[in-house]
Q: What sequence folds into this?
């Protein structure tokens, strides 16, 4: 259980990070370490160079910008979960973080680390998909933005070149959030609290005064290698009055998408969970959007 | 593996652990739990799994409970750390969480205990109003194979009440 030897680097600026990434081979970036340290200790990963990004102050923080809520890659999950701007503009992210690991892992783990590690059941990429987040990437050859729908190339593989790093992401939050008519919900089922979900569902709805859906977003984690948006269900909501009947109808659409399979969980069971979690997430979203009037 | 020079695989660090300042040269690959146990001789911090699943290695780093097996010792340069050895006062007076574990029989073999006690000390010092649900969530990352958790939760509730000052 001891990591193999590596050279340790601790850049203080993004420029220093870029020049290290441009000059070194077989590199691993170390953020919160909550996924990388187990891989180093067990020697699943044996890099020659570890670049610790914990000292780059510019990579941490939450700010409201014209494009949305900008969150630095190194912002710790504990900070994101409690941040007033997150609670005001993207409370569904704070709610999802409640399910991520434990108090000790959230003290260190970062939102950017989760978006680069890309466990298929991870909650933070699911929220990034819910909002159509934009990911900000940089390397020695320049900076670029990547849409969340293009971020997951394959199983646990982000759209990053070996010499690139994730600097942060922007969530284009919905206007009027926490006002009259935007509601959110997040539900997941895991064997034990703090484990990765088997299936998680996140929902956002924007309702007009007559409870007619003007905009909807539903994202699932744990059903495929990447978070899945239920676009057909979103379309089936828009233009209709959101009530329990409609929720039951669109939640059933979550059960019929193609589900991944592993040694423990059958696709059929995943489908049942997807339906139930979607129903719960939409019900919370409805109740929050209507201030409980439609319970 | 290409040859790495000594300067890149070794670092000089300064840490404050339980009020005592230490300066050491460390191998950069050494995790903080091993550093505390092997370099500083503070073997109260237990290592159960060394890959983040058991919680036995929990310490309090700059006020936050963390898993010491999931952090490099070199990353603790400049940090203020409390371990299980530092919770009681110099005269032997136990921390309220330790005292409650004694009263409520919150341990059996004791392997998980340093992680349970440091986690609970950190979260209850920050918020002694925690109820049973919040306490169970706070120790959800700490595995105990002996107690069945009931006596640990009883101890935490007693400690919370003492720390709030109601008796
Ligand atoms: C007991 C336990 C339970 C957990 N439960 C959950 C859970 O329920 N849900 C969940 O989502 N996660 C869970 N996790 C994992 C979560 O805690 C991690 O925080 C997350 O997966 C990785 O974030 P990190 O900051 O720790 O990244 P690290 O471990 O430091 O890095 C992870 C990977 O991403 C790369 N990387 C990190 N940051 C960047 C960057 N800015 N640019 C480029 N590459 C980068 C690293 O090189 C590495 O390959 C759990 C972990 C533990 C130990
Ligand atoms: S030894 Fe660190 S979590 Fe098990
Ligand atoms: S007392 Fe034995 S593991 Fe908890």
A:
């Amino acid at each position: 259980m001891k990591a193999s030897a590596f050279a340790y680097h601790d850049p203080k600026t993004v420029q220093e990070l870029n020049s290290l990434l441009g000059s070194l081979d077989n590199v691993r970036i170390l953020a919160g370490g909550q996924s990388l340290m187990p891989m180093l200790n067990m020697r699943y990963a044996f890099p020659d160079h570890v670049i610790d990004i914990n000292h780059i102050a510019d990579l941490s923080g939450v700010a409201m910008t014209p494009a949305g809520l900008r969150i630095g890659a190194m912002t710790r999950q504990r900070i994101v979960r409690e941040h007033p701007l997150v609670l005001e503009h993207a409370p569904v992210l704070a709610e999802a973080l409640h399910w991520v690991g434990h108090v000790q892992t959230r003290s260190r783990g970062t939102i950017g680390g989760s978006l680069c590690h890309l466990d298929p059941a991870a909650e933070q990429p699911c929220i990034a998909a819910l909002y159509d987040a934009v990911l900000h990437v940089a390397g020695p050859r320049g900076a670029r933005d990547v849409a969340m729908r293009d971020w997951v190339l394959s199983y646990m593989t982000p759209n990053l070149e070996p010499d690139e790093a994730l600097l942060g992401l922007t969530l284009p939050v919905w206007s009027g959030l926490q006002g009259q008519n935007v509601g959110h919900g997040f539900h997941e089922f895991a064997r034990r609290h703090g484990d990765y979900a088997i299936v998680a569902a996140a929902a956002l709805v924007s309702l007009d005064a007559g409870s007619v859906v003007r905009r909807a977003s539903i994202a699932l984690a744990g059903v495929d290698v990447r978070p899945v948006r239920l676009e057909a269900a979103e379309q089936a909501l828009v233009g209709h009055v959101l009530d329990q009947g409609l929720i039951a109808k669109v939640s059933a659409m979550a059960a019929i998408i193609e589900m991944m399979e592993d040694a423990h969980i059958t696709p059929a069971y995943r489908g049942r969970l997807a339906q139930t979690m979607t129903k719960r997430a939409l019900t919370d979203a409805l109740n929050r959007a209507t201030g409980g009037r439609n319970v | 593996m290409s040859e790495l020079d000594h300067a890149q695989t070794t670092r000089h660090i300064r840490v404050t652990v339980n009020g005592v300042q230490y300066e050491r040269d460390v191998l950069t690959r050494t995790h903080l739990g091993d550093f505390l146990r092997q370099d500083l001789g503070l073997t109260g911090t237990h290592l159960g799994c060394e890959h983040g699943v058991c919680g036995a290695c929990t310490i309090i780093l700059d006020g936050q409970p963390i898993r010491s097996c999931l952090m490099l010792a070199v990353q603790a340069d400049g940090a203020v750390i409390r371990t299980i050895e530092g919770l009681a006062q110099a005269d032997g007076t136990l921390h309220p969480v330790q005292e409650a574990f004694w009263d409520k029989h919150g341990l059996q073999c004791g392997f998980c205990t340093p992680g349970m006690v440091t986690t609970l000390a950190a979260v209850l010092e920050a918020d002694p109003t925690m109820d049973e649900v919040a306490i169970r969530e706070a120790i959800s990352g700490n595995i105990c194979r002996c107690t069945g958790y009931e006596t640990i939760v009883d101890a935490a509730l007693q400690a919370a009440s003492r720390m709030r000052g109601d008796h």
Remarks:
- The two ends of chain A are 52 Å apart (CA to CA).
- Residues 57-171 of chain A form a domain with the Uridine Diphospho-n-acetylenolpyruvylglucosamine Reductase; domain 3 fold (CATH 3.30.465.10).
